[in-house]
Amino acid sequence: MTPQERMKIPPQEMPQQDPHVRAHNMDEVALGYTAEMAKTEASRCMNCPTKPCMNGCPVAVNIPGFLAKAAEGDFAGALAIIRETSLLPAVCGRVCPQEKQCQKFCTMGKLLKDQSKAVAIGRVERFCADFVRVSGEQAKTGVLPPTGKRVAVVGSGPASITCAADCARAGHEVTMFEAFHKPGGVLVYGIPEFRLPKAIVSEEIDGLKRLGVKIETNFVAGRTRKVRDFIDKDGFDAVFVGTGAGLPKFMGIEGENLIGVFSANEYLTRANLMKAYDESHADTPFWHGKRVVVLGGGNVAMDASRMALRLGADAVYLVYRRGAGEMPARAEEVEHAKEEGVEFHLLQNAKRILGDENARVTGIECLKYELGEPDASGRRSPVAIEGSEFTIPCDTVIVAVGNGSNPLIASTTAGLDVDKRGHIVTDGSGRTSVKGVYAGGDIVLGAATVILAMGEGRRAAASINADLAEK
Amino acid sequence: MNKILEKRQLSANVWRMKLEAPLIARERKAGQFVIVQVVEEFGERIPLTIGNASAEEGWIEIIFQTVGETTMKLSRREVGEYLPAVTGPLGRPTEITNYSKDGRKGWVVVVGGGIGVAPSHPIVQAFRAAGNRVTMIMGARTKELIIMEEEMRKAADEVVIVTDDGSYGRKCLVTEPLKEFCELPEKPDEVVIIGPPVMMKFAALATKPYGVKTIASLNSIMIDGTGMCGGCRVTVGGQTKFVCVDGPEFDAHQVDFDNFIKRLGSFKKEEADHKCRSGLFAN
C-alpha cells in the first residue's frame, strides 16, 4: 500500500456505550475494536523511517512493529512485540494518555493536519491484549532456573507488578507485600471499573502468580515489618519499594474538614475497592451526594466526577483553575465526562467551602481565574480575578488535586534518602541510598502515569538482577 | 487470615477477642492499632486499638463495642474461626518518657473511658516500665461497663474508678479526679486520655488551665490506615493532620474536638439505612 492509499483509510472510531445508558452503570465505557477494525486501524501506520511514535512512548514500545503484525491479523505476534517492553498492555491501552505520548508524534496525524486522526495506537494495543487474553493464545514466557536469591516487592501497583515479574523471570524467589486485601494498587482502588475492568487487573496478578510470585496481602511494609528487617532478619537479598503516590493533597482552604468533603482517594476507594457501589452487599458506607463539586483537572478528577454520576448525583460540577488546554487528564476521559453530563467550570477555583451548623457542606465559594505567564510546568499560570467570588450550592466536595508521597517507608527506614517532597532518591536506575533497597514508580517520580511507573519498575528490576548476579 | 483464639463478653455490648497475629504481635508497641475486616469480599475495614499482646505467643487482643454493622458481625464470630484481614500495627506508637528526676518519680495519669481502658493498658504498662508512677482513672456510665479492673490494678500504681450513676467507685465524671490531680502542688507530668470523643474533649478542657501536657488518642473513620484516603483527618492547632499516619495521639489541647466529633458522625444516616436493610437492630 502506498502512503497515499493509507491516508485514505478512515480512522476507526471506538465503539462505546451510549452516554445516557453508561452514566448509570459501572460497565466499561469503551467496548473495544472488532478484529476487523483493529486490522484496519493498524494498517493506517505507514511504518515511516523515523518512528517518532516510539520517541513519544516512555518505554519505547516497538509500535510500528506491533502495528504491522496487527495489520496482518497476527494479534498474538503483535502482543509479543509489545510485551518485549511493556508488561501491562491491556492496562496501558486503556489508561495511557496516548494523545500526549505516542500519538502526539504520529506522522499520519501530521499528514492529515489533525493529531486526533493519528493512528489509534492505544486502541490497537488494547485489542491485541484483549484478544490474546480472551482467546487464551498466551505466549509462554520463560523463567530462568532458580537462583536461590529472594526479592521483596513492596506495593502491588504498576511499578511493583513489573518489577516482580522481571525479577521472577530472572529466577529469583519474589514475595509481594500489599497493605490492602487485594493486590493491584491504584489499578484496583483508584481507577474505576468503567474505565479499567478489575478482571483485567486480576488476570495480570494471576500472571504474576504463574511466574511463582507469592503475594502477601494485609501487610504494611514499614509497620508490619521494616524494610531493613526484610534484608537483615528475613533473608531477602533485595527489596523494591513501589508504594506509589498515595497521600492525598488538600487545598488548605477554609471548610475542608467539613462533612461531605472527601479526597478523591477516599471517595473512589469506597466505591471501587470496598465495592460501596453495590449497596445491597457492601458493608462500607457510601456518601450519596446530589450536587457534587469535584476540584481538579486530571484523570482522577474525571474518575471521581463520573463515579458520582453513576452513584446517583443529579449534578456534577468539575472546577479547574486552568483552561481546557492545560488539563492533565486524557482527552478521551474529558470527552467521556462531558458526554455523560459532567459540567465543566474552567478557569475557576475554590476559595472556601461553606457548611451549616452541623458542619455539613452547603456550598463552595469560588473565584474566577485568567491565564497569565507560563509557570515552571510550561503551562500558563492561573491568576485569580479579584472580587470575582461566586457560590455553587452543593452537598459534596471531592478534592482531586493530586497526591503526595506517603512518608511511611521513608520514616521507618533509617538512611533512606528522600528529597524535600518526600520522593525516594535513586541513582536513575532504581538504586536508593540503602544497599539492597531499590525504588521506582510514583514514590520516586511523584504522581505520574501507569506506563512511566512500569518503566521504572522494569529499570529497577534490571538493576536488582544485575546486582544479585554479582552477589 | 487470623484465627480467633479466645472470645469473652465483657458487658452487653463489649467484647474481648484474642487473635492469632504473630507478625503484628512482634512489632506492635503501646498506642498502635489494627485495621480489621470481618467479611472477605464486601466487608468494611475498620480501625481497632490493640489491647494486650504477646510477641512470644503470637497474639494480640482487641476490645470492641458493637456500634455498627462490622462490629456486630465481629461479635458473632466464634473461637476457632478466622478473620480475613487483620492489618497492622498501624499509627505511631505512644511516646514513652520517663519523667523521674532528682529522686522524684515521674507521674503520669492515664484516663480511660469505657472501652478506652483496653488500649490504655499497654500504655500504663509502658510508662511504668520506663520508671514513672502511673495513676489510672477508669470511667464508665455504670458498674457493668467497667472493664479490666483487675489487670489495671496490677499494671498501675493507683487506680481511681468513677461511674456516672455512682453504682461503682466515685459518682462523678473522669474530669473531677483529673482536675484534683492537676491542682496538687506536684502536678502530673503527663496525662493521656483515651475514650469516647466527648469525654476526651472535656478531659482536655479540664487539664488545659493547669498547663499539664495532655495527649489524646483519636479513633477516626478510616479505610486503609496508611495515609491513603484522608478520611481520618482532624484539625490540630489549625492544621489538617491524618490520624492514621500523624497520630493516633495528638496534643489534646490543640485538637478541634467539635469538628472531630461531627466528622465521626459523617455516615450516621447511611449506616442507619444499612442496618435497617440488613436486618440488624430490627427492633
Note down, in words, how this protein is organized.
The complex is a heterodimer of chains A (471) and B (283). Chain A contains 19 helices and 16 strands. Chain A has 471 residues and is an alpha/beta fold. Chain A folds into three domains: 3-22 and 29-135, Alpha-helical ferredoxin (Fumarate Reductase Iron-sulfur Protein, Chain B, domain 2, Orthogonal Bundle); 150-246 and 404-470, FAD/NAD(P)-binding domain, CATH 3.50.50; 250-401, 3-Layer(bba) Sandwich (FAD/NAD(P)-binding domain). Chain A has a five-stranded parallel sheet. A five-stranded parallel sheet of chain A has the order 6-14-7-8-9. In chain A, strands 10, 11, 12 and 13 form a four-stranded antiparallel sheet that branches. In chain A, strand 1, helix 10 (158-169) and strand 2 (173-177) form a beta-alpha-beta unit. In chain A, 52% of the residues are buried. Chain B has 283 residues and is of the alpha/beta class. In chain B, the strands form three sheets. Chain B has a seven-stranded antiparallel sheet with strand order 6-1-2-5-4-3-7. A seven-stranded mixed sheet of chain B has the order 11-10-9-8-12-13-16, with helices on both faces. In chain B, helix 3 (117-129) links the parallel strand 8 and strand 9. In chain B, helix 5 packs parallel to helix 6. At the A-B interface, strand 5 and helix 14 of A face helix 1, helix 2, strand 7, strand 14 and helix 8 of B.
